[in-house]
From TrEMBL:
Keywords associated with the record: GTP-binding, Hydrolase, Nucleotide-binding, Repeat, Ribosome biogenesis
A GO term, aspect molecular function: hydrolase activity
Superkingdom classification of source: Bacteria
Record HAMAP family: GTPase_Der
Family, similarity comment: Belongs to the TRAFAC class TrmE-Era-EngA-EngB-Septin-like GTPase superfamily. EngA (Der) GTPase family.
Subunit: Associates with the 50S ribosomal subunit.
One Pfam assignment: KH_dom-like
Domain EngA-type G: 3-167, 175-348
Residues given in the record as GTP 1 binding sites: 9-16, 56-60, 119-122
Protein name per the record: GTPase Der
NCBIfam families, A to Z: GTPase_EngA, small_GTP
Amino acid sequence: MKPTIALVGRPNVGKSTLFNRLTKSRDALVADLPGLTRDRHYGHGRVGGKPYLVVDTGGFEPVADDGILYEMARQTLQAIDEADAVVFIVDARIGLTPQDKLIANRLRQLDRPVRLAVNKAEGMQASIVAAEFYELGLGEPWAISASHGEGVRGLMEDILDGFTVDPEPETLDHPKIAIIGRPNVGKSTLVNAILGEERVIAFDQPGTTRDSIYIEFERNERPYTVIDTAGVRRRGKVNEAIEKFSVVKTMQAIEDANVAVLVLDASQDVAEQDAHIAGFALEAGRALVVAVNKWESLDNGQREQVKRDIARKLGFLDFARFHYISALQGRGVGDLFASIDAAYEAAMVKLPTPRLTRALQLAVEKQAPPRAGMVRPKLKYAHQGGVNPPVVVVHGTALEHIPDSYWRYLEHSFLKMFKLQGTPLKVQFKRSA
Ligand code: GDP
Ligand code: GDP
């Protein structure tokens, strides 16, 4: 698992500037798609080969209550709770403030690593910048400049040093399915419906609240692992405490899966949170199947309306198959698995170089890349660079002139020509000599 780093601090110290710097290095798996909304508070990044997840806790401000009691905003507390390490950001230009001291008091009680980053320190002498912040009792202050990128790498290397990150996640030879979605859409009901009929082989109890449950089972003599982000509620028990929704948990599950099943609630409008979760799956490049749940509770008119709402708001998921199910009645679950199997096969597909190159030539014959001034990009040959998602590396010249629209055209063409259903596909360009 990637370590999760939370960025904490008063407003205006530079949290979002640092967040942007920490997340933009990762080459986007998908081009910006119309309708794709990203959650700007959660992102992936990588420093020195080590990946991490970073959370910007946003507009946190300690709230004064009777001048004595202070509380961190709920969202910030949850983010800190889920984080493996915290970067506490203060402002070198403003200096130490009473609010900084209050935040530091809370952070000192944590049982996880905290780094103190003194931001906006460009053009200042590090030792002088740091001096007044020692009294926060959070160790050596790191003088950084988020906007100029100074000191950021060293800080991140220092944090990540404390974590061992698996170089390559093991690739399983069977589908590993993450059941994702916002609270109350029916994730646990679906997991129960799936497992109700099947032979459960192993069951992992979660270690912490932020962990998902991993369940291995067999269906039609095929092994599967389901990653349950909701936590199976024991059948029959109605009033079990509803777990807090955790974005970090959802993102970790997506990363660790090879197929994601996004559950939507047909009895409610598609919400911003649905689109964010879909965006996480897409950015991770995961194969995806969408389960529109509670379908039995709608009449025909409502069903048409739901389909239109989905098409409008989640149009960027056009590569995925949609299923209209009732987890409660166990309806549609079998068909869902047909799509899960297909999506898994597509995500893991091996495409030989000659066939890929032929497919590239066909796509170019049908539609050549547009001329940019005097130059026209030339696409020569292609080979596969990875699976889950399939990556196609296209070699050629003047590739920097290829517009995003043509990029998407190529990705669509490969998906279509190889009949890959349920997975995104990524095209990378590589200049040939
Ligand atoms: P947040 O409220 O903590 O997320 O802070 P922002 O990232 O929005 O930054 C607040 C302001 O500080 C913006 O005007 C930024 O441009 C500025 N800022 C952020 N980082 C730096 C820095 O390293 N140096 C300077 N001089 N300004 C910065
Ligand atoms: P989770 O928070 O996503 O795990 O959602 P739950 O599985 O706990 O379900 C939330 C609520 O939706 C519960 O009251 C379920 O009984 C109900 N529910 C789940 N699936 C269906 C369904 O297919 N149809 C209907 N009508 N209700 C459902």
